[in-house]
């Protein structure tokens, strides 16, 4: 019996012109998003490489590691970030590393090129969120109410068809008819990636397939919502308007308003306030140290310039270390306070937003792609680790790590021979490792579970709704 | 005759439960967006005030004029309530001092990426996305729906001219959908008064123009809906077509246009340009360093015949002059690197301008982009926001630097510390002469760049013209389609 219903539903959907048109458009859009993602990745990669080259080039010709002062590290473009952009265009991707002090990332893509901020990107997350849900609604809004209007519902139930099997068959049938064809463009899109020269490792393939799996779950959630609404309405026109309203709220309104609401409800100290407090402490400490520097006297026995230099360096190093320790204590406390408040805000915002399946999907997809909010922290941690490495290197080369603020002029007046230029290649290079599959999966798991729960809840609702449906 | 058709259409729209439901949703969303906008505006004004105060406080605590670090913040503009545009994407402040060039940094979204996750809802977003859908929802079956219910045949059994009928349909549905929207708009305006948002007459006229553009945009979609319904037989087909057009026009074309331009016109990244600039600056510093070295060699050579005491006296007498000399060499060098940065930046901006032009040409195929671009332009939150501010801050930096230089001369010190090792004088440490807090009373103030309405209007005209064109084209097509429509 159930097979018969599924088969009927399959035929009815796939045989319609409506299906042909919308399926074609969905496929084109999905392919487009893969294509755009791949091209974007390449453009970003080229820009990234150019920036890295310039970073090295500016050290060329320098004869003293002292003059290097700082290096820049860049968040490298990730193939998955091109497909699911998340916040990767909003956060800073360049960090200046000076060897000590707090790091801050600047130059977000949207700040650099506000043109892309005007309409934003067309990524897989966006296409899935908007198009898949619309697609689901478009085919399921009249599942029950449409059959009723046409009178076929009455006819079906003139035979001995159990209601529960009927609704289950409807759901499974429409899911198969709609989801299976959608997998096709997604697979082609995946194939496009290596063809367009996007290197994906097995880890990333796994994550991408999880993202697509989430997309299908999300699709299923909207499908069961649509079937549920169609069991609660008598006419297709009202079920469609109702679903459209649900769609607008779920996709466009709930996610945004819940974040804005959380933004108002939870006070987070502004970056300006924190930065200013830090600046003031730093200025004060510097003032104190300046006095200390004035008291520096090289040891009486020391009269060789090189030796004096060394002694001075280690003196500077020690006061800078002390200063940094104080700054770290103070800044760390402030940062932690802010981070804690941010976490509360985030929990509230996303907790509210998760009422909507699209927000849940988007959160899951960005976590899996490594472009969720944690990307910012992840990049900062990587940059901090690099800063330590850099500081060790500079100390080895110059004997001190000033952390900027010092301008070194060395006028060696002894003899005419030219100093040897430094080799920028010796500088340790920055490597960014995207979070591992295990980590991102752990982060995405609650959202994946929630998506599955949406499916179950709305299916049960549709089921119960249909059991009480007046088929006449 | 036409008034009968109009009245009938009005009634047919307004008296349906579908209308009540969607109208309520639309109004609610519009009010919500304005409410959110007002709150965001007030929060950013507060943030701006604290931030500028803190920046001043910090400056007062600094001890030397030369190294005076100022920060200039973008001033929140009440128009961002309606159209946030790129406001949250573009950096909020720039450092202003002698050493670094002007660059807006720390966008609101990069500081608090949580808001970037789902972005904002603003008035223009609601108009672009929701109102267009609303328009299509009520017009997709204007003609074929009547055919399906059989009323079309009935109507034309009387002596009704087709031209008047379709015109009446357009006017009727336009009035039926637009007049109710006056309610949420009036409430939104009231909200602006209740929350005491400081709007000047200029702001009001801009807001009026944005509303006008929104109305035109809405009209485009009504005409499109009418057109679709006049060329299809079944309302289910026309709905599908309308939805596809909506998805393409609102969600896909604007993005695809910009992305296409991004692919066609590559623009180097800011990081790359800065790298180039740094390479140049490093080179200039190195050069300055060498020159300094030479100067000191000469100075030492002058003293070579002196006795140790003479040497020390000579040195003490001349030290400040020498330092001034070094400093003016540094300033000259800094001017040169500044000029270089300006040139690099100009190149970058030219490339970006080409990219923008192409991007907007491509995306203007959709009325949604035309509306958004014109709304952003009118509100001043368009992509020029960044360059506009950076230019204004650069001008300010010049006056600010002149001011600090003057002050520095008056106070007679360079600031900073100076450590010298010298083979005969040994180790020497100089601290600046001045001390204590700085008096910033006569410091020049930054004024936010303003664009007069006259400057804003020409680019608006393009988009308004385009939208009128779209509306006319869709209506003419609907008209022609209907003349040949089989009413049975």
Describe the overall structure:
The complex is a heterodimer of chains A (472) and B (488). With 472 residues, chain A is mostly helical. Chain A is built from 16 helices and three strands. In chain A, a hairpin with a 7-residue loop joins strand 2 (92-97) and strand 3. In chain A, helix 9 (163-195) runs antiparallel to helix 10 (202-232). Chain B has a three-stranded antiparallel sheet. Chain B has a two-stranded antiparallel sheet with strand order 4-5. At the A-B interface, helix 2, strand 2, strand 3, helix 4 and helix 5 of A face helix 2, strand 3, helix 3, helix 4 and helix 5 of B.
Number of strands of chain A: 3
Quaternary structure annotation: heterodimer
Overall mean pLDDT score of chain A? Answer: 86
Q: Give the C-alpha Rg of chain B.
A: 32 Å
Q: Count of DSSP E strands of chain B?
A: 5
Key traits:
heterodimer, A: 472 residues, mainly alpha, 3-stranded antiparallel sheet, B: 488 residues, two-stranded antiparallel ribbon, 5 strands, 5% strand
């Amino acid at each position: 019996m159930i097979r018969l219903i599924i088969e009927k539903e399959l035929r009815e959907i796939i045989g319609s012109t409506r299906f042909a048109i919308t399926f074609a458009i969905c496929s084109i859009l999905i392919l487009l998003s893969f294509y755009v993602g791949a091209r974007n990745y390449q453009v970003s990669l080229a820009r990234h490489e150019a920036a890295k080259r310039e970073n090295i080039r500016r050290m060329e010709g320098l004869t003293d590691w002292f003059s290097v002062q700082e290096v820049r590290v860049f968040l490298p473009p990730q193939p998955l970030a091109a497909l699911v952009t998340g916040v990767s265009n909003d956060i800073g991707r360049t960090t200046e590393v000076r060897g000590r002090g707090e790091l801050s990332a600047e130059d977000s893509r949207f700040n650099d090129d506000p043109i892309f901020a005007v309409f934003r990107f067309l990524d897989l997350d966006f296409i899935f969120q908007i198009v898949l849900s619309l697609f689901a609604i478009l085919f399921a809004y009249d599942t029950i109410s449409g059959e009723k209007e046409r009178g076929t519902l009455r006819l079906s139930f003139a035979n001995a068809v159990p209601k529960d099997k009927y609704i289950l068959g409807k759901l499974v049938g429409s899911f198969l008819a709609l989801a299976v064809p959608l997998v096709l463009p997604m697979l082609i899109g995946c194939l496009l990636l290596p063809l367009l020269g996007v290197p994906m490792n097995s880890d990333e393939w796994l994550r991408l397939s999880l993202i697509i799996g989430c997309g299908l779950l999300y699709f299923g959630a909207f499908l069961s919502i649509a079937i549920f609404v169609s069991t609660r309405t008598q006419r297709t026109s009202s079920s469609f308007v109702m679903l459209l309203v649900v769609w607008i709220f779920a996709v466009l309104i709930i996610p945004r308003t819940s974040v804005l609401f959380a933004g108002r409800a939870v006070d987070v100290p502004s970056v300006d306030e924190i930065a200013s407090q830090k600046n003031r402490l730093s200025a004060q400490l510097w003032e104190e140290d300046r006095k200390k520097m004035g008291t520096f006297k090289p040891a009486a026995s020391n009269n060789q310039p090189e030796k004096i230099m060394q002694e001075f360096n280690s003196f500077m190093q020690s006061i800078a270390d002390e200063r940094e320790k104080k700054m770290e204590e103070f800044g760390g406390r402030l940062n932690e306070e802010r981070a804690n408040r941010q976490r509360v805000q985030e929990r509230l915002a996303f907790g509210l937003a998760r009422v909507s399946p699209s927000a849940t999907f988007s959160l899951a997809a960005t976590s899996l792609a490594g472009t969720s909010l944690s990307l910012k922290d992840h990049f900062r941690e990587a940059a901090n680790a690099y800063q330590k490495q850099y500081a060790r290197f500079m100390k080895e080369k110059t004997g001190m790590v000033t952390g900027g603020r010092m301008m070194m002029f060395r006028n060696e007046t002894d003899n005419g021979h030219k100093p040897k230029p430094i080799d920028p290649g010796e500088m340790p290079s920055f490597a960014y490792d995207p979070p591992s599959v295990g980590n991102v999966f752990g982060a995405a798991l609650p959202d994946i579970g929630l998506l599955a729960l949406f499916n179950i809840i709305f299916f049960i609702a549709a089921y119960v709704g249909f059991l009480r449906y007046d088929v006449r | 005759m036409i008034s009968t058709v109009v009245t009938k259409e009005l009634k047919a729209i307004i008296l349906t439960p579908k209308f009540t439901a969607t109208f309520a949703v639309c109004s609610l969303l519009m009010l919500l967006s304005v409410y959110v906008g007002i709150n965001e505006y007030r929060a950013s004004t507060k943030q701006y005030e604290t931030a500028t105060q803190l920046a001043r406080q910090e400056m007062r605590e600094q001890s030397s004029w030369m190294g005076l670090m100022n920060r200039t913040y973008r001033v929140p503009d009440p128009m961002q309530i309606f159209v946030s545009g790129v406001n949250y994407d573009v950096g909020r402040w720039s450092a202003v001092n002698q050493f670094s060039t002007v660059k807006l940094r720390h966008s609101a979204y990069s500081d608090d990426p949580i808001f970037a996750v789902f972005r904002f809802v603003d008035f223009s977003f609601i108009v672009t996305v929701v109102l267009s859908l609303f328009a299509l929802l009520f017009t997709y079956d204007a003609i074929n729906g009547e055919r399906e219910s059989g009323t079309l045949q009935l109507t034309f059994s009387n002596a009704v001219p087709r031209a008047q009928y379709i015109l009446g349909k357009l006017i009727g549905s336009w009035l039926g959908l637009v007049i109710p929207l006056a309610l949420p708009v009036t409430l939104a305006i009231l909200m602006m008064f209740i929350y005491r948002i400081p709007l000047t007459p200029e702001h009001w006229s801009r807001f009026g123009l944005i509303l006008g553009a929104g109305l035109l945009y809405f009209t485009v979609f009504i005409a499109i809906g009418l057109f679709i319904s006049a060329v299809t037989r079944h309302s289910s087909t026309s709905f599908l077509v309308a939805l596809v057009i909506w998805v393409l026009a609102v969600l896909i074309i604007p993005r695809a246009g910009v992305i296409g331009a991004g692919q066609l016109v590559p623009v180097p990244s800011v990081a790359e340009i800065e790298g180039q600039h740094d390479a140049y600056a490093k080179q200039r510093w190195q050069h300055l360093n060498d020159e300094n070295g030479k100067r000191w060699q000469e100075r030492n050579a002058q003293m070579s015949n002196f006795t140790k005491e003479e040497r020390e006296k000579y040195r003490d007498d001349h030290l400040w002059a020498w330092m001034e000399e070094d400093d003016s060499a540094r300033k000259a060098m800094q001017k040169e690197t500044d000029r270089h940065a300006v040139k690099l930046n100009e190149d970058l901006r030219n490339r970006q301008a080409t990219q923008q032009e192409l991007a907007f040409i491509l995306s203007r195929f959709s009325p949604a982009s035309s509306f958004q671009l014109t709304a952003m332009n009118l509100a001043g939150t368009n992509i020029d926001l960044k360059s506009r501010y950076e230019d204004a801050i650069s001008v300010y930096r010049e006056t600010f630097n002149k001011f600090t230089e003057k002050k520095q001369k008056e106070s007679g010190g360079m600031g900073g510390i100076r450590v010298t090792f010298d083979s005969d004088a040994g180790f020497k440490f100089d601290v600046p002469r001045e001390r204590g807090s700085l008096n910033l009373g006569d410091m020049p103030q930054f004024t936010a760049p303003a664009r007069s309405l006259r400057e804003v209007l020409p680019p608006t005209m393009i988009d308004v013209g385009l939208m009128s064109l779209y509306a006319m084209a869709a209506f003419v097509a609907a008209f022609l389609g209907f003349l040949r429509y089989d009413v049975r």
